[in-house]
């Protein structure tokens, strides 16, 4: 029996998911409807991660399955219709630090929770954050860092945002391996998150979505 | 009659290795000369303290202290991480000063920065290092990637050494790319075919790679001479190096170095059997690596940095299936040979405490970073010595009083009844020197067992 994509994807069944997508496309199903189901499947993955049912490997694998689905569906899309997003967040690992796993998890969780995330990557200079905030008008900025050197880069980034006259327009969250309340104070950020879910909760609080 | 090594129990083997560490020899075979009687006494007292904490048979005289920095000695002495890798005089001075100024019972030696020029010569890709991919003022950092592709498990499983030589090395050292052309040495068998195997050595690109290797090797020797002199002087002054060598958890060997985090995590789903098989193949190699180093250096403690088994990185089930079985085999393989495995659990290990408790008593030393030490003591205190977990953020941004309070709490809880070594939790770069000093000095004073 045909299972639905939402459950096969959220249960991390790669082959079944891809088969369902192919079958539905062959039957002439609307590609946008397929992508919407995939998005709902990923939402469930995010919820399971938040409730400690899923862990990093499960997130990464779900992302791989989604990539496979998108590759099949994309060529069939006539026009790209953007889905409505909860709010914008600029995100990156700060200058001098090239660690990406923690950042990628928070970006993933923000994304499946409906935020539009501008992922600037790793080793991001303060000025690049400033430019992206100006360009996107995002009200929330996330600074990630794993090393103790990131404390200074975070502080410098917050200062650069301030110098650009944007400090009142954005809320800044920080997170990463050795981050604590002391580090938050030191950097001048508004809050820190111990894990990805705290990051999502902060973004929700600041942007005012449920 | 003296028993042969194979006939000894693991306890007896461990005692012999501790004895070797306690009574170092000079290169000529005579007894090692300390700079003073006091230095000799300090050296032996520190090791005895560490040994008592590890074996948990006898209460040590006080809580031992470790100081395990990353590039902290560079910043502390006003140098840069780049200096530590390229200017061996500065390396020598900085690491000497950190040991002499803080006087921990155990230090890490001076090998951590590594010889910068060696990495330049071979065009190392796995890491970016100060002045080469990251700024001269910053620590080296790993460039994770798929240095082994998803479909290469069979090649690794069938012949790990040949895989490393002809596939892995050419990918992580730009200059060794021509090693792809080498034939497996196991094909060198009989008169009539033997010569064919040597064709690659006649080819100019392979010859150029070997030339670079000779140059790289010479650079490592130059560096090693400095390290050797450093070790000798610091030992003469009475400060023991706590690392006799290192090895890794098989899951991290594949996950950190070969497949990368993403790669190995997806393999857990797409090709679990191949991954499990590869982990088993890697296991005896990791045992041999640790045991070999311990015997060569006459030192029982083998450092094992743990990465991808931390809280959140794997589910319980995944940890028990993919991570722990082969790590436990490595630990037991070392223990059987009298070696004391020193796993350093970076991140949190709260969800793993029950599983890792399945080990014999008094044979390991577990260092924790963000793990709840009260819980760790409660769950593991009867079987293993635990070490750690003064946070990097506290050392960097806290006050002296806060550091003392933290250390006091650790001594009172994790230190109760012995089996505890106080140390920083993660290898740190930046810290206030007064905080580092407070951590060590306070513990020496407050951590005395009565």
Provide a descriptive summary of the structure in words:
The complex is a heterodimer of chains A (210) and B (450). Chain A is an alpha/beta fold and 210 residues long. Helices cover 54% and strands 10% of the residues of chain A. Chain A contains nine helices and five strands; from the N terminus they run H-H-H-H-E-H-E-H-E-H-E-H-E-H. A five-stranded parallel β-sheet of chain A has the order 2-1-3-4-5, with helices on both faces. The radius of gyration of chain A is 18 Å and the shape is elongated. Chain A starts with a helix and ends with a helix. Chain B has a domain of 267 residues: TIM Barrel, CATH 3.20.20.210. Chain B contains 20 helices and eight strands. Chain B has a five-stranded parallel β-sheet. The longest helix of chain B has 33 residues. Classes of the chains: A alpha/beta (210), B alpha/beta (450). The interface between A and B is medium-sized, with 30 and 33 residues.
Low-confidence stretches of chain A: none
Please identify the structural class of chain B as seen in this structure.
Answer: alpha/beta
**What string gives the helices and strands of chain B in order?**
HHHHHHEEEHHHHHHHHEHEHEHEHHEH
Query: What CATH architecture of the largest domain in chain A would you give?
Result: 3-Layer(aba) Sandwich
Helix content of chain B: 40-55%
CATH class of the domain at 5-66 and 242-446 in chain B: Alpha Beta
CATH superfamily of the largest domain in chain A: Cobalamin-binding domain
> What fraction of the residues of chain B are assigned to beta strands by DSSP?
5-15%
Largest sheet report of chain A? 5 strands, parallel
